[in-house]
Design brief:
Keywords: Cytoplasm, Nucleus, tRNA processing. Pfam families: ELP6 (PF09807). The chain is built from nine helices and nine strands. The protein is of the alpha/beta class. It has a nine-stranded mixed β-sheet with strand order 3-2-4-5-1-6-7-8-9, with helices on both faces. The chain is globular, with a radius of gyration of 19 Å. The chain starts with a strand and ends in a 9-residue tail after the last strand.
Amino acid sequence: QGKFTLLRDTRTDGSFLVHHFLSFYLRAGCKVCFVALLQSFSHYNIVAQKLGVSLTAAKERGQLVFLEGLKSCLDLLFGEEEKQSGQSSPLQFISESASDLKALFDFVRTSLTPTGSDSWKGPVLLVDDLSVLLSLGATPVAVLDFIHYCRVTVCYQLKGNIVVLVHSNEDSEDEENELIVNSLCHHSDLILWVEGLATGFCKDVHGQIKIIRRVSLELTAEQDLVQIYQYKIQDKNVTFFARGLSAAVL
């Protein structure tokens, strides 16, 4: 409880980790607020069904609060959302000159604050992917402020967890995105860093994952624990193995 997990991918797609955490927390009986900025609801639902979880059922019983970013952006740009609901959108900043993410934070806080009838084990905020907010016009400071307030509310006040995916590219000239990635790395309790192979494509090894446990955050003067594995993504699961020890090699 109270942990901030950063999913970081470089030269590959780390979305399989998002699907894992989404199905994991739903199966565990947690209340999940999923800010999905990258794909549609049907995409996540199809993958979740392969993992044995129904997002539609989770939404109906109130366990999952799903913000479909793609649809909300279109509705905002064409003025449909406010006509239909009469309420402001969590992504209101797109159509305003100010780029603060207060409406998005209010959406998260309202979604995860327990009511008297809630029997869920703990709140979880899942964001896929934070880099999209920059593309939509939010400033790096606004994005970092949003994450800061979410951490205070979800991790410290509600004793829940936050899982955030960001894309990064060390050779990129996108300084704003790298600023956010580096800032989040400093504040994360756990970093799962997925990288493509430096040698290029391989059908038996899809990439490597670096697991960084931030022991240094606890001010114990110890170094962070780092483990590195390679992985292969299959239809319904992912196989992990030590570097150079894939089934194809052995």
